[in-house]
Amino acid sequence: MSKRVKILDKEFDIFIHHDQIQEAIEKVAKRLNNDLAGKDVIFLGILNGAFMFASDLYKNISFPSQISFLKLASYVGTSSSGKVKRLIGINEDIQNKTVVVIEDIIDTGFTMENIIKQLKGYEPAEIKIATFLFKPDAYQTGKPIDYIGMEIPNDFIVGYGLDYNGYGRNLKHIYKIVD
Fold it and tell me: What domains sit in the chain, N to C, each tagged with a CATH number?
């Protein structure tokens, strides 16, 4: 196994081994299984980054549930930032269901805040957040995150669904940029 990879013009060193990733996912799944068994649950993976985490997590869920995937579409709007993101792909009825949003990584928390605001309009019973990676040093919104696979420093990383300009998602380990 190579400890260093080159993606486009950047080099990355191995940061989190695949085995550690799987152990963290099993712990998150165990908590979800304990907390949500018996509820009407739909998991919503946020594309593109969360596809690997969502797949591996869902394989470890032991109660009947649904899974679907959403994507955020950006367009120019009238907000102060000039950018508005809206969810696309929500075809399931989530009213009165427990929704578990599956994210690959949460840093500032602004994207997740936006997702929650939009999902509330569909009137779910509750919304839970499950993220594989969390950067507490970058987090700015203060909303508690229900399920965290791993906390990491505020470094740029790739692999296991995370990308650098669209590349590197296929790597089974997570790599950190070399300074």
Answer: 39-177 (3.40.50.2020)
